[in-house]
Specification:
Elements: H1 8-18, H2 22-25, H3 32-53, E1 61-65, H4 71-78, E2 83-88, H5 91-100, E3 105-108, E4 121-126, H6 136-149, E5 150-160, E6 167-168, E7 174-175, H7 178-187, E8 190-199, H8 205-209, H9 215-227, H10 229-237, E9 247-254
Length: 259
């Protein structure tokens, strides 16, 4: 059987139209309850990053790219951002976001395509999105477009695996190395100010670390993950497993002298 080609616009429109919740935008290998805890772990890391980088949210206009179901729109509003706007690639997501957030500007935006004039922002946030841009030319355009949306002195926040090498996953996944982001930052007048571990055991990390378990134990492991995601969330929060991090979040600051 011929494998269906990954077309981002179609893939995400169909996926979010079918399941517009944190499982739809998160890890389909797990249930909704697990994904709720997975997003809690991401929010915990992002809150730490904002604090350690010294990002002044109460005096920041924020653009969230890849808003999906609005989780990060709520995060920035709840954490005191002055103004929040959203953007997504998928028609179904944009339509539902506009209905759910009638007071916010929600843009239809393919960040890996031609740049769009939607203004400039103190903070541009793009979480769990860039590694779904598998085409390398589109990825390069996405980084350039994101940097162009940031005001001089402002911040670009992004997440990826950021391991020592690139990792190709499913047809809709291509993780980039930390060095790829460092190289891109240097070219675009961005300086990396802070990086935090987002997940180590969450996001499938627990399954990865225990993959050599005998069959019956693997079955028990899967049940444990779906029944007790709060326990895995807590273990991730201890920092004891950071050496096995499978997702990181990074804050880059744009030079005040950049155009």
């Amino acid at each position: 059987m011929t494998e269906k080609k990954y077309v981002p616009e179609n893939f995400w429109d169909e996926r979010l139209d079918r399941e517009w919740n944190l499982r739809g935008v998160g890890h389909l290998g797990y249930g909704l309850r697990y994904n709720n805890w997975l997003y809690k772990s991401q929010a915990r890391a992002l809150k730490k990053l904002v604090r350690n980088a010294g990002i002044d949210l109460p005096n920041s206009d924020v653009l969230d790219v890849g808003s999906g179901t609005g989780f990060w729109l709520d995060f920035f509003r709840d954490n005191g951002a002055r103004k929040v706007a959203g953007a997504d690639l998928a028609d179904s997501a944009v339509r539902q976001l506009q209905e759910r957030y009638p007071d916010l500007d929600i843009h239809q935006l393919n960040i890996g395509d031609e740049p769009q004039d939607i203004g400039k922002f103190d903070v541009v946030n793009i979480i769990s999105v860039l590694y779904h841009i598998v085409d390398e030319d589109a990825f390069a355009r996405a980084i350039e477009n994101l940097a162009a949306l940031v005001k001089p002195g402002g911040w670009l926040i992004l997440s990826d695996k950021m391991a020592s090498t690139d990792v190709v996953g499913n047809p809709h996944v291509r993780f980039r190395s930390e060095e790829r982001y460092r190289t891109a930052a240097e070219k675009l007048s961005l300086s990396i100010e802070s990086t935090e571990v987002m997940t180590s055991l969450m996001n499938g990390g627990f399954a990865g670390l225990t993959r050599r378990m005998p069959g019956p134990l693997k079955s028990a492991r899967g049940k444990f993950e779906n029944w007790f995601p709060s326990a895995i969330y807590w273990m991730d929060g201890t920092g004891m497993f950071d050496r096995w991090a499978n997702m990181r979040v990074m804050a880059m600051q744009k030079s005040p002298d950049a155009s």
